[in-house]
What we know:
By secondary structure, the chain is mainly α. The protein has helices at residues 10-17, 33-61, 64-77, 79-88, 92-107, 116-119, 129-135, 154-166, 175-192, 194-203, 207-223; strands at 143-146, 150-153. It has one domain (10-237). A two-stranded antiparallel sheet has the order 1-2. Strand 1 (143-146) and strand 2 (150-153) form a beta hairpin.
Amino acid sequence: MHCARRLAIALAAFIALxxxxxxxxEDVSDPLEPINRGIFWFxxxxxxxxxxxxxxxxxxxxxxxxxxxxxxxxxxxRFPVVMINNLLxxxxxxxxxxxGRFLINTTIGIAGFFDPATGFGLERNxxxxxxxxxxWGVPPGPYLVAPLLGPLNLRDGTGRLVDTATAVYPLxxxxxxxxxxxxxxxxxxxxxxxxxxxxxKAASLDYYVFVRDAYDQSRKARVEDRVDIDEERxxxxxxxxxxxxQSE
Length: 248
């Protein structure tokens, strides 16, 4: 629902939490924890038995450069969501950069498979409506785990619905194509973070708490613009956005 995806996604989580640390857990509102844990268990099994094996095969077949190009393409088509949310946050300069990136990458970058815009000094932005709501002071609300989609909070869940409405490409493609594209994007990203997810599971005493706290801290940092987008997407430690080690 979010350039190759952040390939060092575990970095911020390990810095913030340490090896399995649960620091900050008391700050996360999780009144539905028993239900969330059940959904989390289901999602994790789906990852272990379906998504991860598929991603390993994908990683074996496709070279790194191809995976990066695919990630670039999906990042490029997300342009309307990013630009609109920059405007809603009164970030006019960033929104102008978004337009420039899209035009350059869509043309010179061959439909966005390549990212020459970064070489021209137009850095990638990553905004969504959940961040916009946070920017204007809307609290995150309770933590939630959605089936297959993974960690959310009430604010971000609402934001995803709005972002879906502002994503233009579903208007021009039939549902089977958009569903297929989402599947490709998810598998492609999961193939890029095989080591990171494995290491996060091994390092955490309670993987549910690890993901919950990492997600909460990551979203707070992104709302406050404290995250380097090349070291973000901590929430994608657990089912990517439906965001470099390739040695698997």
